[in-house]
Amino acid sequence: MSRYVGRPWRSRFLRAPKLALELAANPAFVPLGDLADVTLGLKTGADSFFFVQPVERVPTGTRFGEGGSRVEVVVRGYNGWEGPISARDMLPVVRNPHELIADGRRSFVVGRRTVAFYLYPRPRAPRDGLADYIERAVHDGVHQTALVRSNADPQWWFRQVRALVRPAWVLPYNSAYDYVAWDNPARAVINGRFVGVEPRPAVDSDLLGAILNSTFVAATRLLEGVATGAEGAYDVGPPAARSMRIPDPRHLAPAARPSILSALAEMRAVNEAAPAPDREAQVGDLRHRLDLAVAVGLGLGEGDAAALVGRLYESYARWRGAVEEVEAAVRVNRRVAHRAGTTRGESPIQSAARRTWEAVAPSARLLPRDLLRPTDDFERVVTSRRVRFPAQTPLFEPGRVEVDGGTTVDLGSWDRVIYLSMLVALGFQSPYAIPKDHAQADAVVRAYEAERSDVRMRAEAVAREFVAGRDLPQVVEAAEQLWMRACRAAGMGDIRG
Length: 497
Prior knowledge:
Number of domains: 3
Strand order of the largest sheet: 5-4-3-9-6-13
Shape: elongated
Distance between the termini: 77 Å
Number of strands: 21
Largest sheet: 6 strands, mixed
Helix content: 25-40%
Mean pLDDT: 86
Strand content: 5-15%
Radius of gyration: 34 Å
Structural class: alpha+beta
């Protein structure tokens, strides 16, 4: 028997396009981890402090980081603080994939002007605006949080020295149908929603980046990623990304390389990531040219390359179509559930109990409300829910009950003690409204016991339409709890005494 090594078998054999298995077995495909260092993006421990946003236009040509421009940029940061911080104490950063979408188009290149900056002060005593900003954070104890301390320079806590990731290529940690490798020429810092790819010295960075944007990788990443709550979305963290088998750029046919690099250059020029095949296997011209060039690079003739790419698109489209149909069905089910008053988290037992109670409710009495009159007089009794009720009528002082701390409350009669017991069983909270009339208290309690028995009997008869066997008692119990909830919502009387 083979040893289980934790591979995502559901993705590999139930969800991914079947052609992806064939591609991954091709000796021309190798794990991405053999070609590049694959690293999770930065985890700061205090994003609200370390990520700041400019509130004024940044001068053209501003260079960031130590040795950058002697320019101060007015930024907004932690707890709404605003002030000037030197460009030399910040670095460009991308915090999430949404920042790489403009006018509905997914960018291909991480620009030099990002929408936010990562605070990365020079290793020296802070001055001016930076000093004020850091003092604000220290006052709130930001520097004492565990991850901030773990990442900090031993002398300057506000300068993080661990997990600073500025890769050549940026992959999404979570991705749906379009799997993008963003070009990062400015070496912007990435955070933990991304995975960084830094090619090894013997690997051509441009060839690797182009391949990562091909449909071949869009398919094979499905073998390693882990499906999330959304059907088409996969988590592809560093371990999964390292395991992805992709065409080896070191062994591509030399004649194919110019075509691959030409497609990459056009992606950079238009600054738009090429969408993956849709459910009809339709793709844009730029992606098609890139995929054909990669297929030729694998050693195939033009005809065989076109046939392989066509099979790839059809396989990916079948997978995508099936997933989109599931998503559409889920959306319909959610709408139906919403109209029915259910939620995604509702268990079958809860659902059956709710339907059972809806059938029983019209004829159920809500106690004690339904037996109380506007003219009834009540006593206000304040006590905790931890009341010790005797199992039977005590011989002496039958109206006394023991509460927390050994103290007692005298209700005057056993009938009123049992009434309080009923209110506690129904789930009411202190202060309790107890009729001053002992006989009325007794009558309500007797009616409550009869009604509770009747609700359970009718609930069991109705529930048999939905469930059977061991589930039946659970549904009846849950339906009874819904009756009790309705009793509480109806109230326990007007406390006037």
